[in-house]
């Protein structure tokens, strides 16, 4: 930053020419020389511009770091998306397997339905057989009763014949 220099000698000459005692002018010149220097408008603008350039460089650097980090985050998300895609593929395979199992169960259910139909037919046949046995049992019972009557009659005849002899 360019700051103007303070010429104490010229200052003392100007003030003493205006009527100030020389010793007082020298003390005043020394005091003014020791105070912090004031910047000119152009020096302030130059300082602000330098600061703006430094801030811009800093922001560019930070922006680059942020872009780099976002790129890494994007890579991580891409990997996560790949993993989710693989998981989705696995779920699709599992869904396919469940569909096949469901088909197998449907076939088994169909086979059980056929078995149930066969058992119903067998039950009908057993009912008919039971009816036949019931009919045969009745006939057998009547035959046995008839045979018993015949045996009784036969015995009665034998006894009568034996008596007549």
Protein architecture, described:
The chain is mostly helical and 165 residues long. The chain has one domain. The protein contains 3 helices and no strands. It has helices spanning 8-17, 22-34, 41-164. Helix 1 packs antiparallel against helix 2. The protein starts with 7 loop residues before the first helix and ends with a helix.
Q: What is the count of structural domains?
A: 1
Number of strands: 0
Tell me the number of helical segments per DSSP (H or I, 4 or more residues long).
3
End-to-end separation: 174 Å
Shape field: rod-shaped
Query: For the residues shown, what is the average pLDDT?
Result: 89
The succession of helices and strands, N to C, reads: HHH
Beta-strand share of residues: under 5%
How do you describe this structure in short?
With 165 residues, this protein is mainly alpha-helical. The protein has three helices and no strands. It is rod-shaped, with a radius of gyration of 64 Å.
Features:
165 residues; mainly alpha; 3 helices
Set out the fold topology:
Elements: H1 8-17, H2 22-34, H3 41-164
